[in-house]
Every structure is written in structure tokens, then in C-alpha cells.
Amino acid sequence: MDVVLSRSWIWQDGTGNPEHALDQFNLVGKYEALGWLLGGLSVFGGLVTYARCSGVEKRRPWADKEVLVPPQVSQTFAKSS
User: Fold this and answer.
1) pTM over 0.85
2) Which tens digits make up the pLDDT trace of 53-70?
């Protein structure tokens, strides 16, 4: 659909490049849009698959108590209780 631009539809903001009041854009074909959509969904699907297969129980955000507490301190607390 071609629209004939009249002078009132051009925004003159004082720069050397006046802008059209109506946005001009290129339409994407339906198969190209489908390709982009499936590509984006496959990225998220791959991320979900990686998160499920990586095993959350293998990764712990904390350290064991033996690593955090030196042996002398743990022996001191064991005697006092």
C-alpha cells in the first residue's frame, strides 16, 4: 500500500534530514518470520534442555563445614558441647 506523502506529513525538526510522520518499515515474509520465530524458540529450548540435563544436585552454592571450619576450631566446639 503506497501512501502519497503530502507536505504536512513531514516533520521538519530543524535538522538536515526531515522525518516522515508515518513510519516507514519493510515487511518480512511469512517464511522468514517463521524462521526467526523457530530459531528464537530453539535457543530457549536448548537452554532449558541444558538446565535440565546439567543436574542441579551436582552443583551446591555452599561449601562443606569441614572446609569452612579449621580442625582446631571444630575440635574446640566438639569438646564444649
Assistant:
1) no
2) 887 666 666 665 556 667
